[in-house]
Amino acid sequence: MTRRSGILQAIRIPLLVTSIAAIIPVVCWAGNAAPPNQETSPGAAGEKLVKANDCSSCHAPDRPVVGPSYNDIAKRYQGQAGIVDKLAAKVKQGGSGSWGAVPMTPHPDLTDLQLKEMVEWILSLSGPAAAQHEAPAKLYTYTLADGTTAKLDFPLFVEGQQPKVTKAVFHGYEMFDSYCYRCHGQDVTGSEMAPDLRNSLKMGMTEGQFLSVAMAGRAEKGMPSWAGFLSEDDIKQLYEYVKGRSLDLVPVGRPPSEMD
Ligand code: HEC
Ligand code: HEC
């Protein structure tokens, strides 16, 4: 084996490492996505900082994610005296109570100047308030082992090709068995370290609640925050995989997928 192919081999083996590396740049690229004509407009520095940090894991301009939309934040606070310092301090310390019970994670590594620039950009927005209702989604019906059916607003399987799972569910499986399994059990089978997420979903945990816990974490109880590391889409795919496991439709182990 040549030295070079030895190196290539060594690169291919740690799949886990490559998938972490694949996720991190996605988060960072967003920071460079601002169109060039906005470079010089006021607030451009703040916008860049917001996009380069973990904010997008929990916020979007025009719809609530884990936290309120930027437009709604601007609408509530625009023009209030001393508000920039107040909100900058809130982002630094994190916490809940202004919009609901879900906490924002703290951001101790951002400087006061950076925080102010970010808040100023958010407050400069004047888009429409977040839409409250989305169009009803298409429903997918699956028959469970006990003969009853489950209706989901996303597909678990490639249409007409069950048991081949969708790309999203397969990616959910890969991420679960890279990042979540060591506490929540291999293939979502539960463990003593953390709740069995199949049960959490059976007890009625919604996709939005799943996203909130996954992004905000529960630091004091040993559940890490995945904001800035996993995207909203990643958590959606994790949820879809866990849902498939909780309904016993997706098997343990590597599920068959359309890539096979
Ligand atoms: C883990 C999810 C999460 C991340 C990451 C996050 N936020 Fe938040 N953010 C929230 C939640 C939840 C709230 C609502 C908190 C509340 O109800 O008091 C919030 C509220 C806010 C508010 C309004 C605060 C208030 O008291 O009304 C601002 C401004 C804000 N976030 C900016 C940011 C910025 C800038 C970043 C990135 C540096 C960021 N957020 C990252 C979840 C998050
Ligand atoms: C270091 C251990 C650890 C890892 C890794 C971990 N979790 Fe957790 N998780 C916990 C613990 C502990 C709790 C229970 C917290 C509590 O008591 O409220 C929890 C709770 C949760 C809950 C809420 C369950 C409920 O019924 O309230 C969700 C959702 C969740 N985790 C998702 C995830 C996802 C998704 C991943 C992988 C991206 C993950 N966790 C990785 C330890 C972990």
Walkthrough of the structure:
44% of the residues lie in helices and 3% in strands. With 260 residues, the chain is mainly alpha-helical. The chain has two domains: 34-124, Orthogonal Bundle (Cytochrome Bc1 Complex, Chain D, domain 2), CATH 1.10.760.10; 140-246, Cytochrome Bc1 Complex, Chain D, domain 2 (Orthogonal Bundle). Bound molecules: heme C (HEC) (2 copies). One heme C (HEC) is lined by residues 179-180, 182-184, 193-195, 197, 200, 205, 210, 213-214, 218, 221-224, 226, 238.
Question: Can you describe this structure in just a few lines?
Answer:
The chain is mainly alpha-helical and 260 residues long.
Sum up the structure in keywords.
44% helix; 260 residues; elongated; Cytochrome Bc1 Complex, Chain D, domain 2; disordered N terminus; binds heme C; 10 helices; single chain
List the helices and strands and how they pair.
Blueprint: H1 3-12, H2 15-29, H3 44-52, H4 70-77, H5 83-93, H6 112-124, E1 140-143, E2 149-152, H7 167-184, H8 197-202, H9 207-216, H10 232-246
Antiparallel strand pairs: 1-2
Helix pairs in contact: 3-6, 5-6, 7-10, 9-10
The structure holds heme C (2 copies).
Q: Strands of the largest sheet, in order across it?
A: 1-2
Corresponding CATH architecture of the largest domain: Orthogonal Bundle
Q: Please state the overall shape, judged from the principal axes of the Cα atoms.
A: elongated
| CATH superfamily placement of the largest domain | Cytochrome c-like domain
